[in-house]
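ok posting inputs for the 3-acetylpyridine adenine dinucleotide job
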Amino acid sequence: MAEVQRCDAVVIGAGFAGMYALHRLRDDLGMRVRVFERGSGVGGTWYWNRYPGARCDVESMFYSYSFSEELEQEWEWTERFPAQPEILAYAEHVADRFDLLEDITFETSIVSADFDEKSREWTVRADSGELVAAPFLITAVGCLSSSRIPPFPGLDSFRGQIFHTGQWPHEGVDFSGKKVAVIGTGSSGIQAIPKIAEQAGHLTVFQRTPAFSLPARNRPLTAAEVAEFKASYPEHRAEARVAPSGVPGIPPVGSAFSVSDERREELLTERWIRGGTSFLSLFNDTSVDIEANNLSAEYVRERIRDIIDDPDTAQKLLPYDYPIGAKRICLDTDYFATYNRDNVDLVSVRETPIEEITPRGLRVGDTEYEFDVIVFATGYDAMTGPLNAIDIRGTEGVLLRDKWAAGPRTYLGIATAGFPNLFMLTAPGSPSVLVNMIISIEQHVDWVADLLVYLREHGYTRVEALLDAEDSWVETVNEAASHTLFPRGNSWYLGANIPGKPRVFMPFVGGAGRYRKICDGVASADYRGFTMSAAADVQPDAAEVPVRN
Ligand code: N01
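and the output
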């Protein structure tokens, strides 16, 4: 039996959430923290997603930590939307600058975590066999970190190379002269396809559902605009923290029906030319009214028809299956134009799915396609996948994944009843993936840090979400989504991309600003909805008496 190491908090994951949690808890609260990370470096999503074209769709100046003025002043972003290598370099810089590496154990996955009611400690077990006990467990496992290759028959038989965009080899992939397949046309596929097409001998894209994609219009940032931005960083950050999307935007002009057809076309064109996701927030009813939504959707379809030379290919690429924005909007650079290249073909697998992977390629109906390389851009078991992959056992030995068998249940998207002293950063029930992730992460970590200080000041050693508070929050999250068009897309937000996964809309759609207010309100009401107690409150073998709710 391995010896149990002890510390004050265990953090799982060294992406942006885990790194900031380590810094706050260790450097501001003086806690002894151990972080475990399955990769060999920091950066999370940006460590794994090294596929060609990988780029963030939140602008650089906002997709960065705000906790350190020195950091935000010294780091130089070079492009409007940061590319993966630059974001990874930034994460590595943060790790060095704040001496994070010494407390992170790399290439180590946590396989189980058990809460012991007597000692009020979590004991985590790593795949290395190491055991660590700590009063607090913080998961920073990411929302999109369980990559998924559909279980096609014959997968193992393929004689060429297979890659998933979310597990890209560090040394890169040379597609020169090769026959390449890309399966999947979500954000990852849409970014990778133009880059792969530039290099490959021939590229065949297998598309099941055509996606809405907007031009990113990425460009280098000028020194003058960076300097101007940095001069008023505090104001920009303050705005970002309360903005619905975690990025300050231009306020909507009103309903899509409040302007004439000509004016609407003009406004949509302005946003299309501007690039980025602000196209979707032009009108205040795009995400809630299907008729209004269809006006923006049709504008995008028209642009696709304009761009694609071959009418049959254009027809296949037109997205009609869901309202624009109901699945995560994609941003691209030359995605649609790529289908005008001679070395690119599009195969729709909507009616006739991919039946099997063969030794030479893959088969759709009676047709076998031959490839040297197959790239799976087939997405993730989102949000719950990374948490459910760990055997997390709360009180009475209940497994988190069993508690969540019919869908995730949390209080505020951060805690769950029956799992004391567990904080799940950007978990289901929080805005997370619907807003600027760095804003979500900083808000969660700061909120948890404040709660830990509160516990310490009051001598409490145990904190747990109350079931009533959790039920009511789950209702709030469902209710918020039900007023939008989000449930009409078969998205990973809903778990709809995984056969058999419960169909539950997981993120909170109320926006970053509103959510922050709710969390702050809970904190200032002495953490309403949580029960807390001191160790001395518990008599041996007596039921614990909650001292607060
Ligand atoms: O994954 P996805 P992703 N046969 O799930 C298809 C973030 N991200 O990695 O739509 C054939 O969106 C599937 O088809 P369908 C961002 O939040 C951000 O692209 O289910 N096809 C779909 O086309 C994003 O939303 C950035 O019918 C199959 C694709 O695979 C999230 O990550 C960049 C199939 C999966 O799309 C996930 O994006 C990249 C099958 N059996 C990612 N199974 C930026 O910041 C699945 N598909 C810009």
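notes: The chain has a mean pLDDT of 96. Residues 55-57, 144, 150, 165, 183-189, 191, 206, 208-209, 328, 331, 349, 354, 377-380, 433, 492, 497 surround 3-acetylpyridine adenine dinucleotide (CB under 6 Å).
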